[in-house]
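Final report, closing paragraph on structural work. Over the funding period we assembled a curated collection of sequence-structure pairs, and we close with a single example.
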Amino acid sequence: MDNDERSVWERYVASWKVESPEEKRALYVTCLSPECVYADPLAQAKGWDELIAYMMDFHKQLPGAHFVTDYFLAHHRQSIARWKMMSGDAVLLGEGISHGKYDEDNRLVSMTGFFEARVG
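Its predicted structure, as stored:
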């Protein structure tokens, strides 16, 4: 299995697209520490169960939505990624930047997303 940071990051990104908790968990095993922490302007999730719940709510609000990485840099167990959020029919819904931290096994332990939160 290819475990460079970009490959790990892309498996994490893929977990946002798959729709079932089982598919998400199968991807998490390959890329996320069970104690990972996810944060964005709207929420924070600790561990796989909370992250799955957040992603499932995302799918309810935006069926078919997913993320595409268009820029990625990594060093010293950290990464930044610029991404686009796309609808199921490939319409741009938003853009943002995420910061990741990786453990000694090259699994993500922290994923922090930055984007303009549109409220109301």
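The radius of gyration is 13 Å. The chain has a mean pLDDT of 95. We thank the funder for supporting this effort.
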